[in-house]
Amino acid sequence: MKFFLDSAIVEEIEHAFTMWHFDGVTTNPRHVQVSGKPFLKVIKEIAALAAGTDRAISVEVNPHHDHHAAMVEEGLKLAAISPNFVIKLPATEAGFKAIPLLKEQGVRANLTLAFSAAQALQAMRMGATFVSPFIGWKESNGEETVSMIEEIVTIRDNYGFDTEVLVAAVRNARQIVDAAVAGADIVTAGFAVFQDAFDHPYTGVGLAKFQSFWDQTPYE
Ligand code: E4P
After folding, report:
1. Among 43, 97, 131, 200, which is most buried by a count of CB atoms within 10 Å?
2. What is the pTM of this model?
3. Which residues line ligand 1 (CB under 6 A)?
C-alpha cells in the first residue's frame, strides 16, 4: 500500500519523503492557501523535492473552471512543469470529460471530490490514474465509508481497470487500516494524522520500562 502526504508544506513533504519513505503528495487549494505561498511557486518547490523519482504529486486545476477545455488547458500547463504531476480534476461532467483528453496527451489525472462508487466507476471508465473518494467528509456527515471503498476496489478488479484507489481526507489511524483492509491502493492524510498513526502511548511507556531494566543490568 502506498502512503501519500496531503499537504503543500515543503518541510512536511521533505520529512515524509526522507524519514517515512512516502510515495507521493496530494495538494488542494486549501493546502496551498495554508502554505502561505503563491500556487505556482509552491507546486514548483514540491516538484523539486520529487524530481528524479516516480513519486506522484497531485496538483489541482482552478476549481472555478466549469468547462473541460479550460481544465485541459490548465492541466497541460501544469503537467509541463513536472513529469511527477498528476492533474486533479473534480467529479463533474467537465472533470470527467477532461480525463481522456489529458490522457491522449500523456497527462495523468486524479479524479477528486468523489463521494460515491458510481462517480469512481465513471472516473475509471474515463481513464483516471487515481480516483479519490473523500471518506473523512462523508464520515463527518455520519456516513459509513468502508463499504464504499470495498465497492470501488471490487468494481476496479471486476473490470480490470488500471486506476488506483486513493482514499482521501483520512483523519485517523483506524481509517488508514480500514482502507488497507478494504484493498485500497493508496491513502492520503495530513502530517499529524500519520504522526499519530505511527505512534502509540504504550510504545513510550514500554520503552521507559525497558530503559529502567537496561540501566539496572551490567552490559558484560
Ligand atoms: C485529497 O487529495 C484531498 O486533498 C484531501 O484529502 C481533502 O481533504 P481535506 O483537505 O479536508 O483533508
Report:
1. 131
2. 0.96
3. 6, 26, 28, 30, 58, 112, 132, 134, 136, 168-169, 188
